[in-house]
Structure formats: C-alpha cells, structure tokens
Amino acid sequence: MKTWNSNRQISWKTVFAVLLALCVLPGVALATGTSAGERIQNQATATYVDANLNAQTAQSNIATVEVGQVYSATLAEDRSLYAASGQSVNFSHVLANTGNGEDTYTIALAQGISSGDDLDFDNLAVYIDQNGDGVATAGETLITNGGGTGTVTLQADSQLDLVVLAKLPTSTPGQTAGATLTVTPTSGIVDDLTAGNGVDTLDGTNEDLATVTDNAVLNVNKSSTYNDGGTDSIVDDTVTFVVTITNTGPVAAYDVEIQDALDLTVFDVTDVTDIVINATEGDYEDTVADPAEGTANTDTINGFDPIAVNDANNDATTGDFGVRGHDDVLNADETISFTYTVPVIATLPAGTLLRNSVNILGDKNDDGDDDDDGEDVTSNITTQIVPQVYGVTVTDTGVNGAAGVNDGGDDDSLPNDTQQVNTAASGEQVLFKNIITNNGNGTDIFELTAVNGNFPAGTVFSFWQADGTTALLDTNDDGAVDTGPMIAGEVKTIMIKAQLPAGAYDGDGTNAGSFTATVAATSEGDANISDDATEELLTITAPRVDLSNEAAVGASTPDGNPLSNEDAYTVVGSESPTTTYNAAPGAAVNIPLTIQNDSGVPDSFQLTAGASWNGAVLGGMPTGWSYVFKSTAGNTITTTPAVSPGGSYSFYLRVTVPSTAVFALADYSSDFDGDATVETIDGSSPADGDGDYPVFIRVVSTNTGASDIKLDAIDVSDSEKVTLQANQTGQIQPGGSIAYPHTLRNDGNTVEAFTLSAVNSLSASGWGNNILVDTTGDGSGNKPFSTLAITDSVFYTDATGAYVSQVFGQTVANSLVFAPGEKLGISVLEFAPSSAPDGTLDILTITATYNAGASKVVNIDQTTVIQGQIRLSKTVAVDATCNGVADEAFAVEAASKANPEECVCWRLVVTNEGTAAADDVVIYDTVPAFSDYVPGSMLSGAGDFGTTANPGASLIAHTDADDAEARPDGYNAKVVGDSITFELGTIASGASVTLQFQTKVQ
Hints:
Blueprint: H1 12-23, E1 39-42, E2 45-49, E3 55-59, E4 63-66, E5 73-76, E6 79-83, E7 88-97, E8 103-111, E9 123-128, E10 142-145, E11 149-154, E12 158-167, E13 176-184, E14 190-192, E15 205-212, E16 218-227, E17 238-247, E18 253-261, E19 276-281, E20 301-304, E21 322-330, E22 335-343, E23 353-356, E24 359-363, E25 376-378, E26 382-385, E27 392-396, E28 418-425, E29 429-438, E30 446-452, E31 460-465, E32 491-499, E33 515-523, E34 530-541, E35 545-549, E36 580-583, E37 588-597, E38 605-610, E39 612-613, E40 618-619, E41 626-631, E42 636-637, E43 648-656, E44 669-670, E45 679-680, E46 693-701, E47 707-716, E48 728-732, E49 737-745, E50 752-760, E51 768-773, E52 783-784, E53 793-797, E54 803-807, E55 816-818, E56 823-831, E57 841-850, E58 855-865, E59 870-879, E60 903-912, E61 918-926, E62 931-933, E63 939-942, E64 956-957, E65 972-976, E66 979-987, E67 992-1001
Parallel strand pairs: 5-14, 6-15, 28-34, 36-47, 48-58
Antiparallel strand pairs: 1-4, 2-3, 2-61, 5-7, 7-12, 8-11, 8-13, 9-10, 9-12, 13-15, 16-17, 17-22, 18-21, 18-24, 19-22, 20-21, 23-26, 24-25, 27-29, 29-32, 30-33, 31-32, 33-34, 35-37, 37-43, 38-46, 39-40, 41-42, 41-43, 44-45, 46-47, 49-56, 50-55, 50-57, 51-52, 51-56, 53-54, 57-58, 59-60, 60-67, ...
C-alpha cells in the first residue's frame, strides 16, 4: 500500500469537498411530475337495490383529462482554466431537460463575458460531447460556431454533455479570453447551476474564461462506460472510468497529486479489492529524492480503502474509497492516464445518475507548493444512468379457500399459479384474485389480458381493483386495460371477473369442466417481459328453479335447498297430482305457488299452464277452460320479476272452469302424458272414483333456460244441469332505449378503413340497435351507420383535435377512413321490446372491422331490463388554481389540459330513469392514476347540474371521514385510501343527484 509524504503541504480537505459535492448525486430525478400528454381517466361504479329487492350494478362513462407540458431545464456551469499562448482549450457543460416533455433548445456561442476580457478566441465552436470525456474529439457533432446558433432536442428526464472548443491567439501571460454559451428553451427558463447564476447573475448562460500562462498547464479529463453484466438485473453491472492528465504548458509540473474519491451511495465498494485498476499509461516518475513514492518510474496508481492514512477529504473519517496516484514530474506535452472499474450497487433504481469527477493538485511554477491560482484542477463531470430492467410475476393468492363460496378466494389454498373456484352457477359472475408484482428496478405499467381456454363461449372477462367495486382502466391510453403505474417492488392484488353466459353449464352437451383461462401481465417498457397465471373453475352447475304449491295465496315456504326439487313431476310413473282442488262448473280456482331461484344469478321466469305434458311440449287447456297468473297483490302477470339467487317469489294461478256442462265433466279422462293412452287421474283424498282435470304449471327462465313443471288437478263437482372504448353496462325499461357512447380511435401509425356493426344476443325476441354517427357537426350521433350514403359527411376528431368531416365511402367503399391519432365518437342506441320481461339481459356486441376485414375490435354492452333504472353520467373539468371551482364547463373529455400540480374536478350525475324508486344507492369511485385526492373536496346535492362549471351553494361539502353527516338530504361520503364512496339512500323515480370531487395531477 502506497503511503503519502507527510511533509507535503496540501489541503485535500478543500479540494475534495468540491469533488464529493459533484459526485454525490444518486437517485436524481430530472423530470418534473407526470409526463406531458398522459391521459388521466376516471370511471365510477354504483350499486343499489331495485324495486324487487335485487342488487344491481351500473357503471358510468369514462371521463378524461390530458396532462399539459411543464418546461424546465438546467445548464452547468461557468468554467475557468489556464492555458498556454496559442493553445486550444475545452470547456465542458451539461444541459438537462428537467421538464415533463420533449423540448427543443436554441444554443448560441459568442465571444466575451460580462466581466470583460482582453482577447477574442481565434476559433470558437460548441460540440455534443458524445463520449462524455470533456474534450471535443474528431467525429463529434458540431452544434454551432462562435457567433451562430444551433438547436438540440431532449426528451424529458434526459441530459446532454456539451463542450466548447476554443483556440487562444498569440498572447502574453496574464491576458484573458472569454466566451458565453447561451441556451434558450421553447418556453420558460434554463436554470444556470453556477452559484448565484455566475458572474452575470443570469439564467440560461454559462461563461467560460481562459487565462494565458507560461507555467505548466494541467488538463484533466474523465470519461466513463457503463458495463452491462448480462443478467436480468444490475447485480453484475460495473462502470469503467478513464482519467487522462496532460501538461499542455511549456514547462514541467511537479508533485502532481491525484485522488479520485468514489460515491459509496451508488458504487458497491466495501473493500479496496472491489476497485480494479485496469491499466495505466504514461511515465509516472518517482525520483530517488522522494523514496516514499516507490521505485523510480513505477506505476503509482492504487485503489485506497478506509484506513487512517486514507482520509481522502480530511473530514476526520476513514470511510473513503477511491483511486489515488502521484507523479513527481509531468513534463511539457506529456500525458499520463489510468483506467479503473468499480461495481454498481445492485439495488439502485432505474434512472439513478452515476456522476463522478476527479481533482488534481500540482506545482505548476516550481515554487515548492501548490497553493497558487490554477494549481488545483477539476475534471469534467462524467455521467452514466442506471438502465431500467423489467420483471413481473403473476401469481394466485393461495389463501382464503372456501368451498361453494364465490368471493375471490383460492379454493385449493395452494400457491401454485392457479387461482381456483370450485363451483359457480350458470350465468353467475365468477371472482378470481391475482397478485401482480413489479420485479423490475423502475416504475412500470403492466398490460392485462385474459385468454379463454375452455370457459363457455360468450364468457366475458373484466379486470377490477382488489375490492371488485372499481374497474381497472387503460391508464396509458394504448387501448388495453392495465394495472396503472407500479413502482419497483410494488405488489398489487387485482380481481378478474368472469361473467358466465346464461344457460351454459358443465355437461350441457357443449361444455365440460374444469374450465380454465390464462391471465397475463406484460411490461409496457419491454413487451418481451410477461408472466401469467391460470384461473380455474372446477364446475358450472346447471341453472335450476323449484316450483311448489303453497297452503294459501301469499304464503311463502320454499325449501331453501338448491339441490332438491319440491313437488317434482316426471312423465313416467308420477301421475298423482301434488294438490287437487274442488270446483263447480263456472267457478274459479286459485292455486297458490312459490318459485325458488336455485341459480346463481338474478332471473325472471315465464309462466304457462296446460292440460298435458309429454316431456317437451305443454298442451293447451281443455276447451272452454281459461287461466291467468296473478301476483299476490292481484295483478295479472305472465313473467315474474327478477328473483335474486336463492330467493323466492310467491304468486297464484287462477283457473276458471267453464259453466257449460259438456266442458266441465265430473269424470274426465285424457292422454295427458303423450303416451297415446288415455288415463284417468283421481287426486281426491280419499279417492272418489271419478277422473279429475290435470293442470300442468310450468316456469321457464328468460335468462338461463332453467325450468320446472308440476302437476295439480281440479276435481269438478257433480252438476246435472281454466358494449373500442369501453365495455359498458346499463338498464332499460320494457319498450325503452338506452344510448351507449363509444369512441373508435386510430392510435397506430397507419391509415385504416373501418366498418361498424352490432348484434343483439336477443334479436330474435325483438331487441334491436342502431350505431349512430354525426352527420350534422353538432357532436351528436344522428344517423345509423348502416344507412349512410356516398353523399353523407361524417364528423370526427382529427389528430390536432379539430372537429372535421369526411364523405362516407369516398376513399374506401362503404367505409370510414381514419389517419393515426384520429377518432370517431359513436352512440350505440339499443332498443328493448315492450314485452321484455323484468331482469332480461341482452348482450350487445359492437364490432369495428378494419384491415380489409382481417382485423376487428369488439366492445360488449350488457343491458338489463329493470323497473328501477339508475343512469350514471361522468364528466370532468380543469381547475388550474385548485380553488374548488371549475375553470370551464364540464365535459366527457376536458376542453383544457391539466398541468402537474393543477387540479381536476370530477362530476357524476346519478339519475333514476326507472318507474320505481331505487333504494340503498351507493356510488363507488376511485382516485385515478397519476393523481392525488384533494382533501375536503367531496360535494353533493340534489338535482342534475349537467355541465355547469359553478353551481354555487347547490353542492354541499362532505367530510372525508367515515362518519354520519347531519345533512338535510341524508347523503354521506367518505375517503379511504384511494377509494371514494357516496351513500345516497333512496332516489325517487325521475330524480337526480350530482356528486363531485377534486384530484391534483402529480
């Protein structure tokens, strides 16, 4: 180990304090806030109970605001040096874009500085220092010569090394020459990092000064190379530094001291052996008169470690590592250099700046000390950036298994990359939970996809927050649902909902369990990085319904067992009726009944009755007999309301016996089971010997196809004389319509021709739709796509945001053509027939076909017939000053852009469009990605305030706490983490409530 000459009078404390201040910059983040152009989206979900006590869910549209650009940059820094007459000199600078978007900078270089000088440089130019060594070398890009200007463009969170190359004229010692580097951004200022903004006190400038000397001139330059260790992490990565010292003066320099301290917050050096000296070049002279430095002409470049003699910066600590050296004599025009390599700390986050410079001291005038001006020299700052590595895992939860409970738990309770649910009913929504982990070293977004294996055709998969109340959105606007930004090491639980199609089940002739799908998470930063897990459903039970008799009208005693069929009837061997009623000719008989829904989804049931059943066909009532189904309130019904899973509905069948004796026989026989044999039923107790009229009662699901049939009888007494962007859900009334807004966007880099189509799953039952486009320019859809003619102009938004039109089919027959960045708003109007039963679910598939028919995108809108119908409308507006009042009218897409640190107002109008009151209305919302909730910003009030920017006192503030608020309207609200909940209670038919909250753009 080399020791230092204790007789040397060198103040390393002062010198290396400067060096370490330059080096210690780990984890510096250049960019300001959320990236410009980022689209922040928000969507709300409502749950409520309808008039039939069924739990319902509705989702709002998606509201969007775009992040604006903030301009910010820095320039480092004023430089001064000594040089010989006629010599070329290099001044190094660093330009950094610290804003949140791309910016272009104008660079000018001029003779002279604000404090004055003696000379002009003979030649003056500024270059891009592509190898970062602080020296303009052959092949590096010229930006401009002195007196001119040039431009450079930098992405957000990036920097550029610049070097000013200047040639001194013939001159005398003590004379000075200066140059001023000026950088002008598109907008804003460039912060001069020189202390006090330098001598000129101005931003956007660096001033360089060269002083002519006839002493030795020490130039020190440093360059670095980042070495990828070849793994999926940075655990084996290193940085190699090259330090070059040249005496460009006319005389020798003496006692040149080199000490290069390392920043231990970024470099993994715990022992001197971690520093590898790769090479030394040049003649490091050690004289016989200085034996402490070793043998003459040997290398004196060594790594140093923290022992007492190695207090590199003289701060009374011994924790300094680095590289040091000494040269007794560095002759004129002589160069020495050394190269060394150090490891990078394996846990550094992506984007960490690895900055380093080296300082040297030397006796340039041979006066025996190094305290004169220009005898301490600091190199340029070399910068490397830790690269981002990407990694993700998708796993099952492995916990909370509970057989028969569909709650998102893993029913095998094993961490095996398979999230298992053991059973679900046909038409049920199955809940799976997965865990996403960001294994990379920087923030990443993971695209989510679900690939169906053998789930029944028509199964729809959707992605939700872990609580299942708020849908995950497309936060990076690439057309696919994603996790939102996840920091390095973040673990996020998500819920996957699989909506099973009604009527499909295990063993139905088409489907057989177990059922699997694959959910994958793919890195936005590197599409080659992906992981997946399996979602498994062991069995789908067949849809069931249980029809049974009651003792009296209004009574309800279902058996509560979904696996049993009370009062079951089969064609063979079950000729005895459940109950036989006595009636005289002309009389009416009430048969009390109860339906128990043994399926896993709300369901409505069609009601029919007849006098025969062969296992497939229900025959009509005998001549003259009539019947009608009645609710317990006496209203005529043909279909039940939606019955909740496991719930029941009581009603009765009223059969009227004809008064004509020939149609009301006291002894009746018929072939009631379709076996071509006439049979007689005697259901009286005790048997009375005469034949009774069979009454078959059948119920059939309007949704799943589940059915049940039972047999009663009437003994006539004797008498000589019977949803592109985005999938949506909504409700509709029978005979009504609903409009779903969708947006078709071309986000690629090719021009595409589109055709549009939509198909109702219940078209055979009278459901229909129109895809409306805007042909008038008022922003509203008015004409069906299917009826467009070659003379129609269709309005859309071009890439600049202008609302323009094109002639349909003019470019490609029967198509609309959109360039990259253009989008089309459509309104899909869906119609329900007036006979649509309550609870009916129609699945509308909207398809946009392009690429000459080879490609397509699909949205699915799910519409349920309901009497109590909640409609949600979400809008957004910018509040730049965060004063709680919107600066503009609310809209589905904000008219203005929101910059970081500005606020956004989110508004939701909740309207009951049904004919019955909606009870227990709860609205679930969430703070969108790239945003923070503004405390105390929740507001609500009765009424629909639409797009009004400031409804004033009509909206009343809520507290953020989960407490009972004493408000006249009874509304409550709370904020828990990023979840926002409004509890609105009952909303009358036709009434509206307006809700609002604020977020601040990060």
